[in-house]
Backbone:
């Protein structure tokens, strides 16, 4: 018998996977949620050891689209105590248990981001294993490297194209040929202000492995597979800094404080607006003063205080053909390259998008 070794991920060697914000241990029914509709989000906990785990606490949170994930009590979807069964030796198979969490997003979840949310699951033992030689397992403060934490950040953007203006112009200003998505660049590191955003599109040939991993996700497969879409490179990818920025006090988001208490907060406090899919009509008004979107070919330096969130936009000019999907990866790192968070965005141009003038 071997000690319990619980984790959240596809297997023990990939807990968390790469990139960490695509953890398949969290299985949403769809990648585009709608306010007022009930959803069941499944979380799969696994055990690499052959002993059953002691009683374990599993919890699930939601957040606005962001890089660094802040777990706050007001955005907890649910929690449960369970035992993760042990695996078997022949054939080698890890034990697992699937837990369903029910969630009906209300206006607090959809009012600022169109229902596009990021999810965080984490678990820890409530008591020590019965075998005194085995250690009690706790989730760590950094979910980007923690096998007992899982982050799921995937958003599929497939709105119908807006109707043309009566005079044939004025739609979207200088960005009418672009699709746009906004997120919060969030610094969850302590004592640093110099961070870096890297935004890149995935190439169907060079990034085939990552795209296959993405396409194997059940929610993505349901969204893309039924429409026979093919991954393709977009014409242009831009990234821009928005006007909004707020600083969230550490006592609110550092859930592993000295007394390990979660701090209650108002659901609408410390939140940016205009997150999720963006109409191009508003982009010029949302950009920070004296700035414009830059080519995403080079990393973007973002100076953030600990706990600071800054409005950030990704703009994609689709390829001039129908039946394609463009995948954009956002990676947020600290001054020494330490991971903060990230997003995977899937842009799906509606049929005939490239014909817009």
Residues:
């Amino acid at each position: 018998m071997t000690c319990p070794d619980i984790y959240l991920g596809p297997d023990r060697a990939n807990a968390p996977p790469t990139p960490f914000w695509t953890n398949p241990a969290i299985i949403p029914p769809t990648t585009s949620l709608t306010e007022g509709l009930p959803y069941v989000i499944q979380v799969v906990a696994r055990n690499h050891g052959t002993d059953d785990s002691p009683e374990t606490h599993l919890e699930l949170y939601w957040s606005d689209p962001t890089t660094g994930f802040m777990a706050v009590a007001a955005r907890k979807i649910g929690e449960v105590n369970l035992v993760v069964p042990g695996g078997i030796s022949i054939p080698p198979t890890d034990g697992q248990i699937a837990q369903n969490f029910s969630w009906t997003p209300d206006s607090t979840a959809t009012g600022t981001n169109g229902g596009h949310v990021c999810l965080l699951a984490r678990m820890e033992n409530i008591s020590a294993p019965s075998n005194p030689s085995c250690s009690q397992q706790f989730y760590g403060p950094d979910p980007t490297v923690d096998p007992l934490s899982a982050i799921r950040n995937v958003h599929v953007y497939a709105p119908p194209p807006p109707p043309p203006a009566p005079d044939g112009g004025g739609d979207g200003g200088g960005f009418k040929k672009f699709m746009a998505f906004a997120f919060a660049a969030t610094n969850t590191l302590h004592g640093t202000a110099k961070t870096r955003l890297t935004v890149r599109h995935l190439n169907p040939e060079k990034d085939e492995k990552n795209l296959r991993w993405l396409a194997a996700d059940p929610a993505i497969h349901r969204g893309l597979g039924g429409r026979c879409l093919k991954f393709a490179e977009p014409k242009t990818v831009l990234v821009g800094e928005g006007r909004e920025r707020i600083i969230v006090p550490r006592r609110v988001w550092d859930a592993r404080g000295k007394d390990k208490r979660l701090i209650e907060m108002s659901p609408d406090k410390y939140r940016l607006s205009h997150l999720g899919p963006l109409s191009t009509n508003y982009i010029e008004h949302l950009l920070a003063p004296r700035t414009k979107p830059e080519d995403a070919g080079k990393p973007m330096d973002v100076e953030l205080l600990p706990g600071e969130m800054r409005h950030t936009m990704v703009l994609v000019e689709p390829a001039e053909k129908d039946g394609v999907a463009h995948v954009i990866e956002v990676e947020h790192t600290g001054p020494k390259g330490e991971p903060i968070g990230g997003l995977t965005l899937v842009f799906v141009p509606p049929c005939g998008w490239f014909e817009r003038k």
About this structure: The CA atoms of residues 11 and 46 lie 8 Å apart. DSSP finds five helices and 19 strands in the chain. The longest helix spans residues 208-215.
